[in-house]
Specification:
heterodimer; A: mainly alpha; 2 domains; B: alpha+beta; Four Helix Bundle (Hemerythrin (Met), subunit A); 6 strands; elongated
Chain lengths: 113, 331
């Protein structure tokens, strides 16, 4: 390992700061729920939900790259893990959410409120 | 550098998966990564199934803010999200101490590795305790509700005096004593048979109290798309709904759920339970490695790669929680 003896403590605390900040922003948005973001729709869901999803992916990137030290691995090892997971998960989620929406459009009219 | 072999050799050798090192990664580390990929797919399967079900019931899904409202030592205070946010911090922080342990391992500082591993283990145990507390609140319930014959949940709300409607507990408006019925458990009445759990108040008491207290209104599961809030019925509509009432529901289990659709509770128990199980095994593995560090196994081996490998697993558990947090509590 090339990085064997150097210490990365400074960077670790920096990443921790960023991850904490993102979490605080998320919780803040979750409690306030600004109407302009919460009650409008953008690409199938509210802009607020998109903000949550993007911030979550940013956190996932921070954890994987800095804490799990993915940035230090060889390029194609990194890709064998990340590309595989990202491709399969996006595929699965897309199909299941489309299917869920279809179930809603078929079954919801049958429910009497 | 991974598993020790049982075969006797004169040297204290460890098997390293052969001389070739594809991608410059050791055998153990690479296998840990590939395990994480497969485990990530398992969790994605669960979360995607949750997503499908949520889309299926998109117009009546429980609103997380109204479900998870507790904070330790703050009784009766409406505190949505704060507690899970705290849990998220605990887990991220234990991830930091883990990565600090790995970092100290690179510099062969045995004492530092041991201390950071210990902090990580404590963080994991606190997280597990928090999750148990969260489960307890969810199972016990906070308000109580009525379930209709077609499985819908009716909750009770009241004007708080400032024009806002707030959910109230059954104990806040139901008059009358708890009935003198005794729950049939396995050790009284007919042995090894048990009856259903008795609710604090009977259905009749709840329905009567509703019709006598004009300030109480009923909230149904259906969401008003304009406000994204649950619809509150007028007094008359509420009485009509109560005619179909079947039972009083307090708390949540796998069959009924006072917060709404039972499948919400099923997914909550299953996904947070499966994640909690990962945290639990993570803590166990961390403890084993912690003792190995203390007795100097890695000092003798010449490197602390084992700490790095359990670290990967521990960070993965944190990674999963980040997604569970978003999809259960925020979105």
């Amino acid at each position: 390992m090339a990085h064997a003896h150097e210490s990365n403590t400074g960077r670790i605390w920096k990443v921790f700061g960023i991850l904490s900040l993102i979490t605080i922003v998320e919780v803040g948005f979750g409690i306030v729920k600004p109407a302009s973001l919460h009650l409008t729709s953008f690409l199938g869901t509210s802009p607020l939900n998109w903000i949550f999803i993007i911030l979550t992916l940013a956190k996932a990137y921070g954890i994987t790259w800095a804490f799990m030290h993915m940035e230090g691995e060889k390029k194609w090892f990194r890709r064998s893990v990340v590309w595989t997971a990202v491709f399969l998960i996006s595929y699965l989620v897309t199909l299941l959410l489309i299917e869920g929406d279809y179930l809603y459009s078929t079954l919801a009219p049958l429910v009497k409120w | 550098m991974g598993a020790t072999i049982a075969a006797k050799t004169d040297k204290k050798a460890t098997w390293s998966g052969g001389g070739e090192k594809p991608f410059g990664a050791s055998y153990g580390k690479m296998m840990m990564w590939f395990f994480i990929v497969s485990d990530a797919l398992t969790f994605s399967g669960f979360l995607a199934a949750y997503g499908l079900t949520r889309f299926k019931f998109i117009d009546s899904w429980p609103i997380a803010d109204e479900v998870f409202t507790h904070f330790p030592f703050l009784h009766g205070v409406h505190a949505p999200m704060y507690y899970v946010a705290l849990m998220t911090f605990i887990l991220i922080f234990s991830s930091v101490t883990m990565v600090l342990a790995v970092d100290a391992g690179h510099q062969m500082k045995k004492k530092k590795v041991a201390w950071y591993m210990l902090f990580t283990i404590i963080g994991g145990i606190i997280f597990l305790g928090s999750q148990a507390w969260e489960w307890k609140n969810f199972i016990k319930g906070s308000y109580g509700a009525v379930q209709t014959k077609d499985g819908k949940i009716l909750q009770f709300v009241k004007d708080d005096g400032h024009g806002a409607m707030h959910q109230i507990a059954l104990t806040d408006f139901v008059v009358g004593e708890k009935g003198d019925r005794v729950a049939h458990t396995r050790k009284n009445g007919l042995w090894f048979e048990s009856g259903e759990t008795l609710s604090t108040y009977s259905l009749n008491q709840v329905v009567n109290s509703y019709s006598h207290d004009a300030s109480v209104q009923i909230r149904i599961e259906k969401i008003d798309p304009a406000t994204k809030q649950k619809i509150i019925l007028s007094r008359e509509e509420g009485s009509a709904y109560l005619l179909k009432a079947k039972q009083v529901v307090e708390g949540a289990d796998l069959q009924v759920n006072e917060y709404g659709n039972p499948i919400f509770a099923d997914f909550f128990f299953f996904i947070t339970g499966f994640h909690g199980f990962h945290v639990f095994t993570g803590v166990l593995i961390n403890i084993i490695i912690f003792f190995n560090v203390i007795i100097g196994t890695y000092e003798r081996r010449g490197h602390y790669e084992m700490v790095e490998k359990v670290g990967l697993y521990w960070h993965f558990v944190d990674l999963v929680w980040v997604f569970v947090f978003t999809f259960f509590y925020l979105v």
